[in-house]
Every structure is written in structure tokens, then in C-alpha cells.
């Protein structure tokens, strides 16, 4: 991966968008929708820009996850629009009534991708295209150190961005953990998108219902050498042949914290090793607590 499409960056990596979202829907009663890519050349350019060639099999959501078993009021989705895509999204996490946290590669790209951040952010829904609270994008702040990895020898670094909503929401933000648990700590991944592990965009299937997957914090050695570390978490599935993939980018990895409440420890960034299918894992996550000072500073500046 990265697990999702990107959008054009401004010179100072801060963008504003308030355009209304338009999507193409099929039967709303079905639990899965297929989004198709119109042009093979555009798909190739998009995959190259995102380092998608790092995966031999890739998709747009949690592979072999399950329908969400509880409410996650902090779960959010960012709408993306591209000439070659009928619809697309990245995950995000509500960390403040007016801010969501996502992956930088979701909101930074090149002109070659033809992708733009467009329309409304949906917060607190168990469904991809309905429910929850919707807000327009007011501002995007990308971590100043962000850079794309080549997907073969290096992953993305400082893969984090904050999106300010045009108005606060009533949903309860999730607390950022003081630190991730040690290797073996149970965690959970959340995301929307295709449940088919494939590099063929025409075969990707996006579920209507939010998916979750039981995981655990892995050791640095469980990922490719040098990929995990002080700012990146290696994540392992507790379910065979299951892991996040395209479409889950920017979404949360959570662990139980004070009083048994969920706390945020990671943001979906990409694969934990090059040349592997999503379902084979491991996954690589930005260590959110490691960036708490930058997050606090950005929010305090508002």
C-alpha cells in the first residue's frame, strides 16, 4: 500500500474544501457495492503514485473482518473523488469535536492521481453512505515531515494529517492513548471498503457496514527490517488471512484503556512488508501517541 488514494497538495500543504459530495449509488438495500475504475491507464498512474505495487494483492477495506459489533462514535470517513473512480474514501478518527485525524497519504498526492478531497466528512456511523453526522471540510493540515516511501525499501514516514470540520459535532471524540501497549496487546482495526483482496479495482467490493478486526501489537521484528520503529507500529491479525487494506487508510487502531474505554494508538498507513498481499499482513500503523505534541499544538492553534 498505502491503502488508499491521495489528493493534490497545496504549496504549504494546507487545503480548504467545501464542495458538496456527489456519489453514484446502486441499490441502497444491498450490503455491498461495487465501484469500478473506468480507465486502465489512470489506475496505473494512481497505483504508482501511491506505491500500490508494494502489494501483490490489495483491496479497499479490512479483509476477513466482521460487521461492527458496537458503536464507534469517533469513526469517520473522508470522501475522495477522482476522474477514474466512481467513489472512494479514507478512514479517519474524531479526536476533537471539530477535528479528525487521518493518514497524510490520503490528502496529499500528485496531479497524476487526479484525486481531490471533496464534500462532507461522515462521523459516527456504522454505514458507509448514511447515518451519523456530516460536516464540510474546512482545513487540512499535513504533518510537515510527511514523505512517501517507495513501497519496496521504505514505508511512508510521518504519515499523519489533521482535518478541521466547518462546525463541531456532538459525537464523543476518542482519547489518544498515552502509549501503545507492548507487543501482544490486543487492539482492533476499523474501516470501510472492499472485502476482496485484489489489485484489480474492477473487482473491489465495498461493504455498507463498518468492518472491524481483532488484532494485536506486534514486535518491530514482525515487520520488514526498519519499517516499524519509534513512530510506526507493526500490527498483526488475530484472525488468519485478515488485515486492513486500501480504503482503510487513515482509519483507527484502538486498544482498551482507562475504565475499559477505547483509546487511539494507531492510524492505518500501509503494509508492514513489501510484496505481500493485504491478507498476509502484517500492517503498518502510524504511532499516534508519538505525535501527540504535534497534534496538541495544531489543535491549540485552531
Description:
With 302 residues, this protein is mainly beta. The chain has one domain: Beta Barrel (Thrombin, subunit H). Helices cover 8% and strands 32% of the residues. It is built from three helices and 18 strands. The strands form three sheets. Strands 4-5-6-10-9-8 form a six-stranded antiparallel β-barrel. The chain has a six-stranded antiparallel beta barrel with strand order 12-14-15-18-17-16. The longest helix has 11 residues. The relative contact order is 0.23. About 23% of the residues have low confidence.
Order of adjacent strands in the largest pleated sheet: 4-5-6-10-9-8
Which CATH architecture would you pick?
Beta Barrel
Helix content: under 10%
Distance between the termini: 31 Å
Radius of gyration: 17 Å
CATH level 3 topology: Thrombin, subunit H
Backbone shape: globular
CATH class membership:
Mainly Beta
Strand/helix succession: EEHEEEEHEEEEEEEEEEEEH
**Whole-number total of structural domains:** 1
Main beta sheet: 6 strands, antiparallel, barrel
- Helix count equals 3
Number of strands: 18
- The CATH superfamily turns out to be Trypsin-like serine proteases
The class by helix and strand makeup works out as mainly beta
Poorly predicted spans: 4-61, 82-87, 110-114
> Strand content of the residues, in percent?
25-35%
Overall average residue pLDDT? 77
